[in-house]
Amino acid sequence: MDAFFASVELLSFPELRGQAVVVGGRSVHQPVVQLDGTRRFSRLRDYVGRGVVTTSTYEARAFGVFSGMGLMKSARLAPEAILLPANFDAYRHYSRKFKAAVASIAPIIEDRGIDEIYIDLSAIPEETKALARRIKHAVFEATGLTCSIGISPNKLLSKICSELDKPDGITVLGMEEIPARIWPLAAKKINGIGPKSSEKLARLGINSIGELAAMPVEFLVQHFGRSTGIWLHEAAHGVDERPLVTESEPKSISRESTFERDLHARLDRAELSKIFTSLCMRVADDLKRKGYASQTIGIKLRYADFRAVTRDLTMQVHVNDGNQIRKAAGECLKRIPLTQKIRLLGVRASSLVPTVGEQVEMAGIQTELPF
DNA sequence: TCTGGGGTCCTAGGACCC
DNA sequence: TCTGGGGTCCTAGGACCC
Questions:
Q1: A95: which strand partners?
Q2: What is the pLDDT of residues A275-290, one digit of tens each?
Q3: Nucleotide with smallest C1' distance to residue A53 CA
Q4: Which fold has domain A252-354?
Q5: Does the CB of A97 fall within 7 Å of any strand B atom?
């Protein structure tokens, strides 16, 4: 989906079309309807506090404002940009709508998050571009939103292609076009090559996918290890055999929170304790609502200097009760030194097993030791 | 005035078992 | 007195993605 969160907001606020709009922030005010009936919006320059850009419109991106950027920094680049609070319920609603629209045409779908999917089109006997146009049309009819589609022989290339003609684009690519259309791109366009790997490649003199493709696989194995080295080599040549994963169970469920200001374990004990307990209760709610119990409870803590530490505890039983989670998380917390100020706390439940009705207790009994 | 929140996957070391 | 080889589970950290 194109600039998904921002585009959903524009459905509610059409008068903002064509403007630099940013979604994000923690305590952003909803637009206010004024006496003359027009709406008054917050501006980026008025924002104070922590928070990052979740999504920006293409007009905002023209100012250099992208997802993940701190709002204070964005405000320097585009002070007049409109700032809207995130409205996740609406995004989930439109996410379900667009996925259903695609499924009505091509039902083999791998979910890749709220605004992205892989679709298996190989069994659909229709000319490729016409099919892509039909899917885009169905998505627009269902949601009023545009998307960009990449069509190729595999997931790796399709993902790259989907970004080549954004927004509202269609890109079809065959293997024979890789040298001309893929090799000139930056290595980090490969899904899985992030900032760290990209930096390391650059230090080795490799910047483009073509330069990566030109390196002997032995060289890559030498610098990145066997499995990553081979993967880098294959990816640069457009080779990717991964099948679509159409069903999966969650591996973990977590909640975390960055504080308005850094807190001290001793001085702000009461406040921290309240946040900690609330995170545990929210994880418990999520577990129950989604029908899972967890055997491993973990916590995450980020210090003021942004260093993160984690601790976890595996129990003999599976739990989904807030108090039990709070107790396990408390044990984890005891193992972390708390001399410095903290900016974030998180609680995570993993080693999940499905629970059906009364079987929560059963899950515990089954995994208990025999003595 | 840096840097959200929810995830997955991988690696590596140590405990422990056969 | 010295010390194999294979396997699983747990823990901690980190890269990466949406």
A1: none
A2: 999 999 999 999 999 9
A3: B4
A4: Dna Ligase; domain 1 (3.30.1490)
A5: no
Tokens standing for residue A261: 């200001």
Q: Which two tokens stand for residue A183?
A: 């090799």
pLDDT at A361 over 80: no
**Omega before A125 within 30 of 0, i.e. cis:** no
- A116 Cβ contacts chain C strand, under 7 Å: yes
Main-chain dihedrals φ then ψ at residue A316, nearest 5 degrees: -85, -15
- Give the CATH fold of the A89-173 domain: Alpha-Beta Plaits (3.30.70)
Active site (annotated) includes residue A116: yes
The top-level CATH class assigned to A177-236 is mainly alpha
Alpha helices (H) along A110-225 = 128-143, 155-162, 178-181, 195-203, 209-214, 217-224
What per-residue string of b and e applies to A123-138 under the rule 16 or more CB within 10 Å gives b?
eeeeeeeebbeebbeb
**Alpha-carbon span A84 to A99, nearest angstrom:** 25
Alpha-carbon span A122 to A139, nearest angstrom = 20
Which nucleotides of strand C come closer than 7 angstroms to any CB of the protein?
9-18
* Predicted confidence (pLDDT) per residue in A161-187, tens digit: 999 999 999 999 999 999 999 999 999
Question: Where do the H-state alpha helices sit in chain A?
Answer: 4-12, 58-61, 71-77, 88-103, 128-143, 155-162, 178-181, 195-203, 209-214, 217-224, 226-236, 269-290, 322-334, 359-367
- Measured over the CA atoms of residue A349, residue A5, residue A28 and residue A307, the dihedral's sign is positive
- Domain locations in chain A? 4-86, 89-173, 177-236, 252-354
Q: Å between A80 CA and C17 C1'?
A: 30
DSSP-derived 3-state class of residue A13: coil
What's the CA A358/C1' C10 distance, rounded, in angstroms?
29
**pLDDT at residue A190 above 70?**
yes
Q: ∠ CA(A176), CA(A181), CA(A187), 5° rounding?
A: 115
Return the CATH class of domain A4-86.
alpha beta
- A322-334 vs A269-290: helix crossing angle, rounded to 10: 130
Catalytic residue among A59, A110, A116, A199: A116
Give pLDDT tens digits for A219-242: 999 999 999 999 999 999 999 999
Position A208 confidence tier, pLDDT thresholds 50, 70, 90: very high
Whole-model pTM over 0.90: yes
